[in-house]
């Protein structure tokens, strides 16, 4: 009886834990609407009051990547000309995901040297939550584009521009609140972040180029030895 009771209690605790996690996850998803409409208060509460979660941040990043792919595949040909037969979904996602992560890493690396208060986790969460307007506007516009004429394309273009500008503004405010910087210092470190990201990409290209050359050298040496012995 005691074993059965203990097992029942453990199951109840696990179920309660899953329920609490799910409730917190849903609340953090809903909180994104407050973040994008009240960014100064929202980002502060997101990081310092623990209103955000990494699970929600991952969700927004995945939705951003999916929105980009759906936009390429399903937008009316009047507004985007993409050879669909040549689109590689994973390549498209990687071309956005890798720069995004590099920008987060560069910002963390640069601001750590100059009294930035944000951890990499905080920077990543703020950047992910800042992508919400892109998803909320551009995903429905994929459907709208198929109902518009070419003459009505200015409406489509304006809304897409608003989504991008909104995201950039949220990134600015989010990083300002995460690091507790002023507007001027935030602008400087945004520029420094882009520069740092370029340096990281350059070093990665050099590393993989050297790695490729080294691999090619050892393969050619192996072949030479193999042919001589045979």
Description:
The chain is mainly α and 230 residues long. It has one domain. Helices cover 82% and strands 0% of the residues. Helix 2 crosses helix 7, helix 3 packs across helix 4 and helix 5 (120-129) runs antiparallel to helix 7. The longest helix is centred in the last third of the chain and has 47 residues, at 183-229. It is globular. The model has no long low-confidence stretch (mean pLDDT 83).
Summary of the model, kept short:
The protein is an all-alpha fold. The chain is 82% helix and 0% strand.
Low-confidence regions? none
Order of helices and strands: HHHHHHHH
Number of domains: 1
Total number of helical segments? 8
Mean pLDDT: 83
- What structural category do the secondary elements indicate? mainly alpha
Portion in helices? over 70%
CA-CA gap between termini: 73 Å
The radius of gyration over CA amounts to 24 Å
Assign an overall shape. Answer: globular
